[in-house]
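Quick one, tokens below:
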């Protein structure tokens, strides 16, 4: 018998959570086949079979916390020969389970995520489901987790819509005995039902049902040919012009209550809690300056076409700001530090958080090692993080470990703001709208494209002189981009 052990998890990582077992007890396995996925606060790890044989024991269930060296399970060697029998008789496999139900359990939902809320089930108890068919989405304070059917059969729901659940909790089951009868019983209705349930996420299903949309008429732009929430919302907008001709102007108001109470999503609750905690913990102060964007805009206009042809990505302002921020952090290290108890941790790496607005709220994915990236590398990295954020595909690792944050309210037209620190970081830069304003230039009044900059900082670490110097340095590097190239 060969033990399946938790491997070393990396520097300063003391524990991990069982994310998912890919096999169950009694299954045949091959040496080096992935058996279980572990999640830590930094990375996801795969644990493989130590030998050929049969998975004879699982000692740690999904959701359990383990440490390096923990015995996760065992493989009995030499038992692989018995495993091919089920494959030789696929038609009999569902009946062989004897009607035994396969539990649907809440998966591990990431570091420090202790609970989630059940969304809208896409099937109801008694419905026939296919293996790996999407059944429900669990919403947490950080991400939305999709739960699929573990087997083909008949669904039984235990946890209702809106229920609060924890990792490992059983929320339903699938009776495998129902898999045989389902194809014969429901061929007539299956084609009509599939577009509205099997291929729509809960968020899309909600938009479709609330607006009486026909899923078959929606164009799909998702990465796997699936209909996204944006597709559904776009269909509402496309149908909107026909509404005035069919209904009186007052009709929409007649159907709307004067007030509506809606429970905050877990992501929104977490955003609210973390922002308030940040205000309560740090001694936050904001300093302002303004930057003349003339030279950056001229440089961008001159090279944007050749830049895009060469690198396959557009040249935006964020790469210039990121470069300026990194250079300023080199010179004022306190802004790239954090407090841990009575210690100050100075970071010698430059992982820049880029605030991104999504339909579910604000997220801050992290651009790693920005100090070694070119302008093109920064633009590509930011574009990839933005797409992942809007598609809901960000990983936990991509949202953790930033040392400084940049937020751009200018994309929404903000002229000036006081951004709140992204704890435990000690600084955040707020960019704003570029506005043509009259400025005194060498004794003459000229119209220049100006942007207000705001640096919010933790006064416990960063002194006022350092904060002002930091922001002035960014202003200098943006008003004269050649300084950054020449390291001046």
């Amino acid at each position: 018998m060969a033990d399946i052990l938790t491997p070393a998890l990396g520097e300063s990582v003391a524990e991990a959570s069982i994310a998912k077992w890919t096999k169950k007890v009694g299954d045949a396995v091959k040496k080096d086949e992935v058996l279980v996925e572990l999640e830590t606060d930094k990375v996801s790890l795969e644990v493989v079979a130590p030998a050929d044989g049969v998975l004879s024991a699982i000692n740690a269930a999904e959701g359990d916390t383990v440490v390096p060296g923990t015995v996760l399970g065992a493989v009995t060697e030499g038992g692989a020969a018995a495993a091919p029998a089920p494959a030789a008789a696929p038609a009999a496999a569902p009946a062989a389970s004897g009607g035994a139900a396969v539990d649907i359990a809440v998966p591990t939902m990431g570091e420090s995520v202790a609970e989630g809320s059940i969304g809208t089930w896409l099937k109801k108890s008694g419905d026939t489901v296919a293996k790996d068919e999407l059944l429900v989405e669990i919403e947490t304070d950080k991400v939305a987790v999709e739960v699929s059917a573990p087997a083909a059969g008949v669904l039984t729901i235990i946890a209702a819509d809106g229920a609060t659940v924890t990792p490992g909790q059983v929320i339903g089951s699938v009776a495998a005995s129902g898999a045989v009868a389902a194809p014969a019983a429901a061929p007539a209705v299956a084609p009509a039902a599939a577009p509205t349930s099997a291929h729509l996420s809960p968020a899309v299903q909600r938009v479709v049902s609330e607006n009486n949309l026909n899923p078959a008429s929606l164009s799909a732009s998702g990465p796997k040919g699936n209909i996204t929430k944006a597709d559904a919302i776009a269909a509402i907008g496309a149908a909107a012009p026909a509404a005035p001709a069919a209904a009186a102007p007052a009709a929409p108001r007649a159907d709307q209550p004067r007030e509506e109470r809606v429970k905050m999503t877990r992501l929104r609750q977490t955003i609210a809690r973390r922002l308030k905690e940040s205000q309560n913990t740090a001694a936050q102060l904001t300093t302002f300056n303004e930057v003349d964007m003339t030279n950056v805009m001229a440089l961008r206009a001159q090279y944007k076409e050749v830049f895009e042809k060469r690198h396959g990505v557009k040249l935006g302002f964020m790469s210039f700001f990121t470069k300026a921020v990194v250079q300023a952090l080199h010179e004022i290290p306190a802004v790239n530090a954090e407090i841990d108890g009575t210690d100050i941790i100075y970071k010698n790496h430059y992982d820049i958080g880029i605030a991104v607005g999504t339909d579910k709220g604000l997220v801050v994915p992290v651009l790693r090692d920005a100090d070694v990236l070119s302008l093109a590398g920064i633009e590509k990295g930011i574009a990839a993080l933005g797409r992942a954020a809007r598609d809901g595909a960000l990983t936990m690792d991509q949202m953790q470990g930033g040392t400084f944050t940049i937020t751009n309210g200018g994309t929404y037209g903000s002229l000036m703001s006081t951004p709140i620190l992204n704890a435990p970081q000690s600084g955040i830069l707020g960019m704003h709208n570029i506005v043509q304003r009259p400025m005194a230039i060498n004794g003459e009044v000229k119209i220049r494209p100006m942007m207000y900059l705001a640096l919010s900082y933790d006064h416990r670490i960063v002194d006022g002189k350092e904060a002002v110097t930091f922001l002035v340095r960014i202003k200098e590097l943006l008003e004269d981009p050649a300084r950054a190239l020449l390291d001046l």
